[in-house]
Structure formats: structure tokens, C-alpha cells
Amino acid sequence: MTGIRVALVDDQALFRAGIRMLVESQPDLVFAGEAGDGVAARELAGRSRPDVVLMDVRMPRSDGIQATRDILADADAGGYEPPRIVVLTTFDLDENAASAIRAGASGFVLKDADPEFLLAAIRTVHQGNAVIAATATRKLFAHVGHGGGRREVTAGWSDLTQREREIFRLAARGLSNAEIASSEYLSEATVKTHISRVLAKLGLRDRVQLVVFSYEHAIPPEG
């Protein structure tokens, strides 16, 4: 079994060394390389094709926001699977972290998080799920949507069935598949199928992007 390939981007060498040791201590993770700025991160991602990138925001030459855009654009242009990008930030309501998520990152983790949480985040985001607790998700994306009017929903919204819209609203509140299954008296496998269809119809990458969509668009309250 090939492990989850993890790349690290941060301008502090000591921090990189600690994270590298943590990743290499796990039998199911493979350290895929490190970079000290966004320009080097783009080259690293193109060369090593990591599954997950841990991305600092504030760095020289090119910051984590631009690096996120570049890495995802390169994957799209190259026709290969893009990595999941997890933003590393010092503050839980960092506007830069919010901007990185708008740019396509799949979540964020505080730099002072417990090692076990970071490891769980890597595994969780690799599966396409959010890496942020429900309350933190709501706080962050309320911050994302602050200061701007909400856009009308895209044509994809009309393609959703009534059940898919119900599942969308629950997922946008930060509920897990298990919590949605319990609430709606469905199996987790059925919920997972609904979520996959919702993401495909709305053109979204993962559940974090689903939450962004919810906060940035005027979702009808019912129906």
C-alpha cells in the first residue's frame, strides 16, 4: 500500500523539520518534500505530485494564496489530480487563510494544533472531507462572506433534487456524514452518494468548498 504523500511549504526551517519528523513517524504517510516559499512550492508540487500540501500563508516571493492558485491551475492544465491543500495559520480568523480557501484550499489548521489533530487532518482531507470543526467552519466562512453581497445561486442549484438540497444545507452547517445520516434516517453510504452528486452538480471540489458556496451565495431558505 502506498502511503499518503505529504508536502510541506513554510518559510521557517525549524518548523519544517518538526513537521517532517512527525509525518515520517507515521506508517501510512510519506514525506514528499518541502519548500520555503510559494514559487518553490509550485515547482515541488509539479515534480513530486503530493496528495496533500501543508501550506503556510505568509512567505517570501509568492505567498500561500498565490501558490494555492498556481498549484491547482497547474494540475488542471496538466490533467492530473490536484493535491488537497491545507492552510497552516496562526489565527483562527485569519483573512489570508480565508482567501486561500477561496483560492481552492481544502481547509485550515492552526499551527499550534496538537500533532494528533494535524495527522488526522491530513488523513481526513485526503478523503475529500473538511478538516475544520463545525463551529470553526461557521466562524471562518462567516468571516469569508463578511463585507460583500451574496451572489445568486448558479444554474447547478436548480439541478439538485429536493433531497440533495436538504443534504447540502446540513453539510453546509458542518455536519458529518454520520450526523446527517442520523438526522435524516439514511445510511452513511447514501449520504456520501448524495454529497458526491451535490459537489458534481455545483462544480465544487470538496465539502469545504461547499461551505464557501453556501456563505457566498443566496441559498433559498426552502426548496
From TrEMBL:
This is Response regulator transcription factor. It comes from the Bacteria. It comes from Gryllotalpicola kribbensis. InterPro entries: CheY-like_superfamily, NreC/VraR/RcsB-like_REC, Sig_transdc_resp-reg_C-effctor, Sig_transdc_resp-reg_receiver, Tscrpt_reg_LuxR_C, WalR-like. Residues 5-126 form the Response regulatory domain. The lineage of its organism: Bacteria, Bacillati, Actinomycetota, Actinomycetes, Micrococcales. Residues 153-218 form the HTH luxR-type domain. Pfam families: GerE, Response_reg. The keyword Transcription regulation applies. Keywords: DNA-binding, Phosphoprotein, Transcription, Transcription regulation. SUPFAM superfamilies: C-terminal effector domain of the bipartite response regulators, CheY-like. The modification 4-aspartylphosphate is found at residue 56.
